[in-house]
Each structure stands twice: as C-alpha cells, then as structure tokens.
Amino acid sequence: MRNRGFSMESRRLQFHTGEEDAGQRLDIWLSARLEDVTRSYVQKLVGDGLVLVDGSPVKSGLKLKSGMTVDVVVPEPVSSEIKAQDIPLDVVYEDSDIIVVNKPKGMVVHPAAGNWDGTLVNALLKHCGDSLSDINGVIRPGIVHRLDKDTSGLLVAAKNNAAHQGLSDMLKKHEIVRTYEAIVDGVIKEDSGKVDAPIGRHPVNRLKMAVTFKNSKEAVTHYSVVRRFKTHTWVKLRLETGRTHQIRVHMAYIGHPVTGDPLYGKKCALMDTGGQVLHARCLEFAHPVTGKPMRFETGLPDYFTGLIGALEDRDNSC
After folding, report:
1. Contact 142/132 with Cβ under 8 angstroms?
2. Residue 5 domain-assigned (yes or no)
3. CATH code, domain carrying 219
4. What's the DSSP call for residue 82?
C-alpha cells in the first residue's frame, strides 16, 4: 500500500467475503463493517490506495465476489489534529485516576472521520491536559466505554493507563453496573424482564445494529417498569453486556422502541425530544486503583422530565 503519511496508530484490518456478499459494491460493503466511518470516507481510503482487494488497489464501485480478501488501513490522526476545546463539562467526580462526567444529549464521545470537533474528548483534553490514558489511541484518550450521541448521562474516563486497564477488565467481567432510564413506546405489561438476544451489524442498513445470530455477540439487558402511561412506559434498564446501541436494539426487538429514537423507532409526537429518551443514570464500580466502592447517580435531564410532564398532561386530559 502507498504510504500517505498515516501514523503508527493506524488500524490495519482484513476482511473476507462470503457468498452472501457477492454482487455488493465494495464501498457500501466496507462502510458497513467499519464503525464511525462514512461511505464517503471509505471512498477516500480507496482513492488513497489504502484498500486492497486480493492484494491489488481497486475502485470504490468494485462488485465483490465470494472468497475475496479485503485489506484496509484506517489512518489515525496524529495527536496534534485533536484539539483541546473549552467546552463546559458537568464533572460529577474526579481524582488523579478517573473522571466521571454527565454527558449531555447531542455530544459525541470521541472524534471520528469527518467529525473532529466538539466531542467529549475535545473537552476532556482541555480539562485534563495530558492526564488521560492513551491505551485507545490518540482519538480516544481516556475513553473506556461510550454513550451514543443522543443518549445522555454518566460516563467514566481514565486518566492513566493503570486505571484504564482496571476499568476495561471490570467491563469485560461485567463488574461495572450501568443503570439507565428510558421512556419507551407502548405499555409493557410485565413488571420486569430480561432480553437475552445477540446483537450484530444490520445486514442491510449499515447505520443500524440488529438482533441476529450471524456475526453477532451475546447481549443481555434487564428492565423493570417505573411507571406506566396510557401509551408509553417509563423503564429502568441494567446492562449485563455493552454492545453498540444495545438498549435501543433490544427494546425495539420486544416491540417497545425507545421513544424519539429515529433509527429504531419514530419521533415523539408530543414534543421534540432531540432523539431517543434514554439516560445513563447510575454507575457503580470499584475504583480501578484503590478498590474503593464507587457509586454515582445523576438526576433526569430536562428533555426527559419534560416528556414525563407532557405524558401526564395528555393522560389527565383524556
């Protein structure tokens, strides 16, 4: 591959096509397999010679055949490309090892192709300076787990590699308790339940995840009813695993998509919620360095309580 000046942090990936992939365009197929990357960015990678099919450079519109090998280099920006920005942070807790923040709805957690500013990482770089772990590379310093752009709530970041490794190990062992609250469409009849259904990339829509038994990972979500409205349900949810879009996929799978979710459900008819009504309300874990039990909880944001009020008013007027 031609060296276009990408850094040592570049991701080098390899994929293999199967019978089900035959006939698909390379750029569409590949963008479905790369997280946080747009189709136009894949086309740029192809144009820069960073995508090889069976060892040779190709065009974006190549029609795939079964049995092909696709090698990709996704360049990481050098550290100077990620700017520290003076963006307000709602810091819930901070010490020399970790920082817990209450992320607002609408904020992306870390930079990605075509979206380098205004993220939580930009804000953390300004707030913490060089005191962030570098295990996840220069565009995700300190980031151990993520929240979707339009999901608000608590997130812990690591300020050094020891803390990062400790938190990562706890995540893998399901030792970090993450509790969310959401408003979902429809009335859930049972008081509590569990969704145990594997999640993988949607076979057609690259922006979505889906419950699937092909190329998927185990995913388990526990839920309990907080309050029922005439057409909606307020629920508490606990993640046993942490797959991309897990709560949103699982609730849609059981017929109760998160209210306002434009990807897995529909916009809320009562008010503009700015996306899914989903808030990461509580985090519990042992401090990754000291071992001290930690528990953090944040109140419900205005968009969430605003919808509760709108549902109460609507139900009372019926």
Report:
1. yes
2. no
3. 3.30.2350.10
4. S
DSSP E strands in 152-301: the ranges are 152-158, 177-185, 192-196, 199-201, 209-211, 216-217, 220-228, 232-239, 278-286, 293-297
Show which residues are catalytic.
148
Backbone angles phi, psi at 165, to 5 degrees: -65, -40
Range(s) of the domain holding residue 261: 174-285+300-318
Q: How many domains does the chain have?
A: 3
pTM: predicted TM-score of the whole model, two decimal places: 0.76
> Do 214 and 276 belong to one domain?
yes
pLDDT of residue 245: 95
Distance of CA 311 to the CA centre of its chain: 28
CA atoms within 13 A on the CB side of 171: 15
pLDDT tens digit sequence for 89-102 = 999 999 999 999 99
Task: Provide mean pLDDT across the span 245-271.
Answer: 96
Q: Is 294 within the bounds of a domain?
A: no
Residue at a domain's end among 116, 146, 173: 173
197-223 pLDDT, tens digit per residue, is 999 988 877 678 999 998 899 999 999
Q: Which stretch of DSSP H or E encloses residue 265? A: none
